[in-house]
Each structure stands twice: as C-alpha cells, then as structure tokens.
C-alpha cells in the first residue's frame, strides 16, 4: 500500500541508521492513540499489550483507517527491530497536540 509500506520502511530505516551510528543510546518513537483504540469493542484502560485491530480497521475502513494501520504496524515492527538489535526504544502517545496546522486546510 502507498501509505503503509513507506511508514514501516521509514521507521526501520531510521532505526538502522541509529544502529549504524553506534552513538544513539535511546530512540523515542512518537506514537498515536490510533495505534491502540481502533478496535471493535472499546476499552476503558489501555496498557502496553493493547493494539489497534488492523483487520478491523481494514474491514470497516473508518475515517483515518490507513493512518491507524500504518502507525500500528510501524510501531510493532519498531518494537520487533529494537528487541532483535538491543535498541532502547521508548514510545510516547501524546494525548493532545495543540498548534496551527502545517496546511491551510484539514487533509
């Protein structure tokens, strides 16, 4: 897919560059609420075991579904790569981002 593969490959390319540099001690991944709450049955609380249901997103195709799928799969691949290559990975999920849009209208 034109959105999903570049998202995953972009994250992995950054992680490979960090590994190659040998000076990066920790990598912080800015995640999204879209990686954990796009599920058929909503939860009240989330933890590190919660992920958006990629198949549900693909099936229902709700607004933003490609973003949810690409961020979820990219973060899962990042965790896998970090574990396999002993990289200290931290993810953060900002609850609200405030500020002007980069574009004049909402995409």
Key words describing this protein structure:
Rossmann fold; flavonoid biosynthesis; EC 1.1.1.234; mainly alpha; two-stranded parallel ribbon; 42% helix; Flavanone 4-reductase; 107 residues
CATH architectural arrangement? 3-Layer(aba) Sandwich
Poorly predicted residue ranges: none
Shape: globular
CATH topology: Rossmann fold
Structural class determined from secondary elements:
mainly alpha
- CA-to-CA gap between the ends? 19 Å
Helical segment count: 3
What's the level 1 CATH class?
A: Alpha Beta
Number of domains: 1
Strand fraction: 5-15%
The major β-sheet equals: 2 strands, parallel
Order of helices and strands: HEHHE
CATH superfamily: NAD(P)-binding Rossmann-like Domain
* CA gyration radius, whole angstroms: 15 Å
> What's the helical proportion of residues?
40-55%
Strand elements, count: 2
Give the strand order of the largest sheet, numbering strands 1, 2, ... along the chain. 1-2
Average pLDDT metric: 87
Structure description:
GO terms for molecular function: dihydroflavanol 4-reductase activity; flavanone 4-reductase activity. It holds the Pfam family Epimerase. Residues 2-101 form the NAD-dependent epimerase/dehydratase domain. Belongs to the NAD(P)-dependent epimerase/dehydratase family. Dihydroflavonol-4-reductase subfamily. It catalyses: (2S)-flavan-4-ol + NADP(+) = (2S)-flavanone + NADPH + H(+); a (2R,3S,4S)-leucoanthocyanidin + NADP(+) = a (2R,3R)-dihydroflavonol + NADPH + H(+). With 107 residues, this protein is mainly α. The protein has one domain (4-92): 3-Layer(aba) Sandwich (Rossmann fold), CATH 3.40.50.720. Helix content is 42%, strand content 7%. It has 3 helices and 2 strands. The protein has helices spanning 4-21, 54-60, 65-84; strands spanning 27-30, 89-92. It has a two-stranded parallel ribbon. It is globular and about 40 Å long. The two termini are 19 Å apart. The relative contact order is 0.22.
